[in-house]
């Protein structure tokens, strides 16, 4: 790893650990290997959003050319959000692409991601299905995102109705996650989800 | 890339840290409007990818970058840093602006060049000194030189071969020319011109000679002397077609009317100084070529020129 990248990451790692956001448990970062090329990030779902109460794990890969190129970040924790792929966790955020600036740090990246959870950009989607729901059926989106936060990120709000629907599909032999994806994609319409799963 | 912040004594103000490498600013430059400062190498690397300020994304170009204010430079210069060779035992702590000078002479630098004291005298980096083996090193040196020598020898042989080939080819061409010349008058004119040019070219390679004592002229040189001069002429590149004629003209019996007897020579002695003479290398003799002496009268000149052999007095 280039000297400059290692020096930066070491310093940024300390910066995050000492930051007040860590004190408030809003962001967190851990080392995955000894050479600072890969880190594990964690952000808390922001209040007054469907992600509140959840903790979202991020994979952070630091390129050899850091900080001249942005770190490669994706969500490990599954999340229902217009700008994050529900399949791969890939993130659509300008600062992780062409709007990256060398003075940005791990801390600012994590805070930007947290801000993205508060303010989705449905017109620049990463997940078209989620973005469509976000625009056409805001209430359904909210419920679905809460449910995903509950299941995958340890969020508090349990949705009995959704859980039951998934249970039914699982009893029919469907994988739990696949069932959730299908139901989420069809606004929790059992019939259409079943049709899609068994077609 | 800046200096690692942990190398400094005490705290370093955030303002002195490069936002790109997070080290303490090295040779800093600042952006024109927002005045954000960066290490020269860091900002240049960044601008080569994207023409914006890395802090606030204002548009900037490489030529707009400016030196930072004196106050910032002074603050940096005053910082105390440990030597780059601290891990090799250097305990010096220096003001940042004296670091470069210190590094040039730091005796803990593992790459400092030292002469081997075991006898071979080779100059090698300090950290390689302990594994250094004079015989091994010298052997390697001899080997590379041997390789070079072999290469040169091979090249020499190849060059010699081509030279022989070319000479042979040239001779063939000359023979060809001779044959053509006999059968074709136009060709003869060209060939004559080429021969005249050849003599001129040769004349230009010779050094101008000065005769200090015209009285030392030998008007009737013997055979041995003549042969010796002939060999020298041939060796210094005399065109073959004039060599025999020239040698004929080294004796007073073939000299022009103005020179052919002691009497006429004495009459014309004052004209000698007008001759353009060329040195015959290493010999007390001069060449007076017709092409160099067209200003002389026919009384004093013959084609293709004269050879004058002296007892002494040639410079």
From TrEMBL, chain A:
Keywords: ATP-binding, Nucleotide-binding, Transferase, Ubl conjugation pathway. It comes from the Eukaryota. Residues 4-154 form the UBC core domain. Residues 161-199 form the UBA domain. GO terms for molecular function: ATP binding; ubiquitin conjugating enzyme activity. Pfam families: UQ_con. Its EC number is 2.3.2.23. InterPro entries: UBA, UBA-like_sf, UBC, UBCD4_UBA, UBQ-conjugating_AS, UBQ-conjugating_enzyme/RWD. Gene3D superfamilies: DNA helicase RuvA subunit, C-terminal domain, Ubiquitin Conjugating Enzyme. The active site is at 92 (glycyl thioester intermediate). PANTHER family: UBIQUITIN-CONJUGATING ENZYME E2. Belongs to the ubiquitin-conjugating enzyme family. This is E2 ubiquitin-conjugating enzyme. It comes from Aquatica leii.
Automatic annotation (TrEMBL), chain B:
It is an enzyme of class 2 (transferase). Keywords: Coiled coil, Metal-binding, Transferase, Ubl conjugation pathway, Zinc, Zinc-finger. CDD domains: mRING-HC-C3HC3D_Nrdp1. The keyword Zinc-finger applies. GO terms for cellular component: nucleus. Residues 18-57 form the RING-type domain. SMART domains: RING, Ubox. InterPro entries: NRDP1, NRDP1_C, Ubox_domain, Znf_C3HC4_RING-type, Znf_RING, Znf_RING/FYVE/PHD, Znf_RING_CS. Residues 135-169 form a coiled coil. Gene3D superfamilies: Zinc/RING finger domain, C3HC4 (zinc finger). Pathway: Protein modification; protein ubiquitination. One of its GO terms (molecular function) is ubiquitin protein ligase activity. The keyword RNA-binding does not apply. It catalyses: S-ubiquitinyl-[E2 ubiquitin-conjugating enzyme]-L-cysteine + [acceptor protein]-L-lysine = [E2 ubiquitin-conjugating enzyme]-L-cysteine + N(6)-ubiquitinyl-[acceptor protein]-L-lysine. Its EC number is 2.3.2.27. PROSITE patterns: ZF_RING_1, ZF_RING_2. One of its GO terms (biological process) is protein ubiquitination. This is E3 ubiquitin-protein ligase NRDP1. It comes from Aquatica leii.
